[in-house]
Every structure is written in C-alpha cells, then in structure tokens.
Amino acid sequence: MLHWPPHDAPPLGWKFAAARPLVLPDTCVLFSALPPELAAVFRARREGRRERRRPITRAGEAIVKPRHACPCCQFITLTETPGSHEICPVCFWEDDMIQREDPTFEGGANRESLTMAQANVRAFGASSLAVLAHVRPHLPEEEPDGAR
C-alpha cells in the first residue's frame, strides 16, 4: 500500500511540475501506481458503487417512488414494498404479508380476511365497516392499468 505524501522520494517514473508534490487524502487511490491486477479490482469496486447510487433529482423536482397495487382494492396506492404494513388510503387495508400469502386468514394486521375485505370494498368501498370514516375516493392516477 502506498502512503501519500511519501516520506522519501517519489516512486520511480513520477515527475512533478510543481516545487512540492500534490497532497491527496489518504483514501485516494492512484491507479497508475498500482499493479494492473490490483488497479482492476479497485476500478470494479468504483463502478459497482456508481451503479448503486440513487437517481439524482434537480432542486424542486419531486422524488417519485414506485407504487404498488393494494391487495384489497387493487388501486395503485402503496409506496412501500408489499407486506410493509402500509395502510391504503382508499380502502384502509393494512398491507400484511401473511394475509397476502393466505387470503383466507383472519387476524394479524387486519380483523377480516383478505377475501372478506375485497368483498367489503366491492359492497361499500372500505375493507370493513369500522374503517368507513377513514377511506377516501381513489384518484384517476391510482386506477389499475387495465381499468384506464
């Protein structure tokens, strides 16, 4: 591992245009000073970090999260991953992974089973009568793709 600034003379083949060498932070890696196989490893790590970066948005631009369909009312209202216990504002269903996997299961995050809540949404627009005061009508952009 090279340490910068060097304590003695610069490595062979290095030339400086200034009277003193450029001082770099300890985390800086100079690929030209590394053996080619080690430089390739560092370049691959750097490229991997670039791919994992979040998309950049401009100032004032809204950050748009991917949306998912509510398993109960089927409207595109959930912004978190499926099973994250997010509550749908249209039918007031709490997204529970156990009830997603077993739609007939009663209990857990919701009192009703998913199949019963879906029937309730078709009948009166909420997952249960107890939450009817908390629901809202769906927005046009929340309609499933097939319904547009």
Describe this structure in words.
- It is built from three helices and four strands.
- By secondary structure, the protein is an alpha+beta fold.
- It folds into two domains: 1-53, no CATH class; 68-147, no CATH class.
- The strands form two sheets. The chain has a two-stranded antiparallel ribbon with strand order 1-2. A two-stranded antiparallel sheet has the order 3-4.
- Strand 1 (68-69) and strand 2 (76-78) form a beta hairpin.
- The protein is elongated.
- The protein starts with 35 loop residues before the first helix and ends in a 24-residue tail after the last helix.
- The mean pLDDT is 78.
Draw up the topology in text.
Layout: H1 36-52, E1 68-69, E2 76-78, E3 84-87, E4 94-96, H2 97-101, H3 114-124
Number of helices: 3
Tally of separate domains: 2
Radius of gyration based on Cα positions: 28 Å
User: What is the chain-wise order of helices and strands?
Assistant: HEEEEHH
Average pLDDT, all residues: 78
Straight-line N-to-C gap: 61 Å
Strand content: 5-15%
Largest sheet: 2 strands, antiparallel
| Low-confidence regions | none
Molecular shape: elongated
The strand count comes to 4
Structural class from helices and strands? Answer: alpha+beta
Tell me the strand order in the biggest sheet: 1-2
Q: Please identify the oligomeric state.
A: single chain
Organism: Chondromyces crocatus
Pfam family, one: Cys_rich_CPCC
InterPro entries: Cys_rich_CPCC (IPR025983)
Protein name: Cysteine-rich CPCC domain-containing protein
